[in-house]
Amino acid sequence: MTLRALVFDVDGTLAETEELHRRAFNESFKAFDLPWQWNSRLYAKLLRVTGGKERILHFTETYQPHLVDAVAPQIADIHRHKTRRYTELTEKVPIPLRTGVARLIHEARTAGLRLAIATTTSRPNVQALLRGSLPGGEAVFASIVAGDDVARKKPFPDVYMRALEELGLDAGSCIALEDSRNGVLAARAAGLHVVATPSLYTGGDDFTGALSVVSELGMPGRSYEHIAGAGRHDRNVTLEALERWHEAARTTDPPEAAAPALLNA
Ligand code: XBP
Ligand code: MG
Fold first, then answer.
1. Which of 55, 70, 251, 260 is the most exposed place for a label (fewest CB within 10 A)?
2. Residue 196, strand partner residues
């Protein structure tokens, strides 16, 4: 067996969290007397910028340029408020994990694989989600790397490289699970093969570079819809399927060789 760890993204991959992020952003704008409400159409565009603080700055520069000087110094405070609101909301009504996530985590743990998280979101958000939604919570993961732990957020590979470092493993022995183009680019640039499960806001993303693209991880009795790459003849993303896909890809397409070209694409 060549696969030794699974590295999960959080938002959109573990759970459909973005609507709660959007609500927390909007409530924070209100609290800071900013007459902004991000609707889902606009948020889909803004999500191309990873990281909440970066997203607020990008929005201000693009849509409210006359307010940049007034808003820029407040972004850290607005975002702190947003994180507090998001964690409160998550704790009040836990967000369910996406179909098959708990199953795959259980399979991996039973087989002795290690688990990690490589995310752009803030650490308190990850902690709140795991506390409410995953039996065992944070303790299930050998490494959790969040957006502010590294210099550059996705699509740069930094969170993945840090997770590999903390796991003490090389990219070729891990597989990443992602839901967005930025996530696929980040994992590939770090040398990992990636399985993508598009989410609420990322169905239209370009997943070029992913080993497999499927609608969800699936459960016994509930097959995923195969979208591209490996897994055409499988029904669920099981550990056995991941090992098979990973092994086939390792021999035909060593991930390290593909990485730099993809990030520059
Ligand atoms: C997705 C993101 C995050 C969240 C907001 O992260 O881009 O920025 O939308 O989180 P991932 P913060 O898919 O990598 O988990 O406001 O805490 O930055
Ligand atoms: Mg994501």
1. 251
2. 178, 213
pLDDT digits (tens, 9 = 90+) for 60-69: 999 999 999 9
121-179: pLDDT as tens digits: 999 999 999 999 999 999 999 999 999 999 999 999 999 999 999 999 999 999 999 99
pLDDT in tens, 200-220: 999 999 999 999 999 999 999
Q: Which residue's CA lies nearest to atom 4 of ligand 1? A: 121
Alpha carbon nearest to ligand 1 atom 8, residue: 51
Catalytic residue from among 11, 158, 179, 234: 11
Which atom of ligand 1 has the smallest separation from the CA of 47? 7
- For residue 116, which of 177, 65, 60 has the smallest C-alpha distance? 177
Q: How many CB atoms lie within 10 A of CB 226?
A: 16
Average pLDDT, the chain: 95
Dist. CA 178 → ligand 1 center (Å): 12
- Active-site annotation holds for 9: yes
At 180, give phi and psi (nearest 5°).
-140, 165
